[in-house]
Amino acid sequence: MNIIVFALLALLAITAVAIARLRELWAAIMFTGIYSFLSASWMMILDAPDVAFTEAAVGAGISTVLMLSTMALTGQGEDIPRKSSWMPILIVVVTGATLVYGTLDMPALGAPDAPVQLYPSPSYVERSVEDMHGLPNVVTALLASYRGYDTLGETTVVLTAGIAVLLILRRDPKEASATEPSAGDEPA
Amino acid sequence: MTPDLLPSDLTSAMLMATSVGVLVTMSLALVRATLGPTVFDRVLALNMFGTKTVLLISVVSFLTGRSDFLDLALLYSLINFVGMVALLRFTQYNSFSDNVPPREESP
């Protein structure tokens, strides 16, 4: 089982490096699809099928189509090769090292004495029926009430992202009925 | 969630060998997608990568004895198909709208 996990993580790293080095935009979009498939498989091996479901549907399905349609509107000009500098990779390495250092304090995967298994969940299971005036579903009680502000923030983020996508992908009726506009008057 | 049916030792070793083979094939597809000079090399490599992901998930589901992962494998193949159709439509017409201008000749 460890072989599969290590191989998947290695493939994830290779895909990330390939995305960073590719200069054709549509190839980079395809590689983000590969990355989503890989990370969804990894999440499923970590026993989180619901997160893997969301990652596969959103990351590999919707966002690939959205990025492709955005590229159809904005033109697929290749990025000019920039002068490589050491600052970005230094920042990335420092951030990654900080995150890895942070994981050292985390309990092992599925440890029975992890705080998440001990403290909050039993009390939520016991109290949610009285707190929510008889609502039987604990997950709904958590999402809609205990974590209400968090869910409100997430919904705001989704709404903002949807508005931004609609603004990018909209097409004026006059412009669509006219002859095909040249690529210059689309906002890049 | 208890495992439905854990495989025997021989079956488990065979499934391990299968998953290693699938992972090697995924690496080869990734190499082709990185090197691929034309669009269709890359499209084929991506399609094969998605198929191999479905296979890997199925093998892992039998390895861990959780048959509910097979539903996820079905979803993955559906998403792979949708993404592939979108990609090919984009490369053919450079647009997603319904009123695409007809090509004079298929490239």
UniProtKB/TrEMBL annotation, chain A:
This is Putative monovalent cation/H+ antiporter subunit B. It is found in: Cell membrane. GO terms for cellular component: plasma membrane. InterPro entries: CPA3_Na-H_Antiporter_A, MrpA_C/MbhD, MrpA_C/MbhE, Nuo/plastoQ_OxRdtase_6_NuoJ. It is a multi-pass membrane protein. It comes from Allorhodopirellula solitaria. Keywords: Cell membrane, Membrane, Transmembrane, Transmembrane helix, Transport. Residues 10-74 form the MrpA C-terminal/MbhD domain. The chain crosses the membrane at residues 28-46, 53-73, 85-104. Residues 121-178 form the MrpA C-terminal/MbhE domain.
UniProtKB/TrEMBL annotation, chain B:
It is found in: Cell membrane. It is a multi-pass membrane protein. Pfam families: MrpF_PhaF. The keyword Transport applies. Belongs to the CPA3 antiporters (TC 2.A.63) subunit F family. PANTHER family: NA(+)/H(+) ANTIPORTER SUBUNIT F1 (PTHR34702), NA(+)_H(+) ANTIPORTER SUBUNIT F (PTHR34702:SF1). This is Na(+)/H(+) antiporter subunit F. It comes from Allorhodopirellula solitaria. The gene is mrpF.
